[in-house]
């Protein structure tokens, strides 16, 4: 009977050790969840960068096509107007 108690105690110790490694050790569930959340963040950043790159690529194509895109940028970013136009500034 005494051997059985020792066997059960060793078995419980092994199970506790394995459970600890499963949850908190290298490659454990906690670490996998942390890696997954970081991976999700990076995937979202990649998607944002792809959308930004697509917008910039479209803008480059517009600039290569003609003067309209150049005029639009000059108007909104530099505040320029064409000859013969009247500038109105609306204050809120």
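^ Assign residues to that structure.
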């Amino acid at each position: 009977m005494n051997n059985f108690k020792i066997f059960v105690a060793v078995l419980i110790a092994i199970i506790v050790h394995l459970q600890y490694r499963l949850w908190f050790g290298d490659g454990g569930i906690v670490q996998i969840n942390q890696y997954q959340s970081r991976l999700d963040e990076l995937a979202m950043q990649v998607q944002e960068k792809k959308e930004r790159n697509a917008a910039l690529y479209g803008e480059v194509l517009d600039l290569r096509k003609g003067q309209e895109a150049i005029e639009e940028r000059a108007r909104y970013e530099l505040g320029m107007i064409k000859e013969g136009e009247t500038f109105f500034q609306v204050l809120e």
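The CA atoms of residues 51 and 66 lie 23 Å apart.
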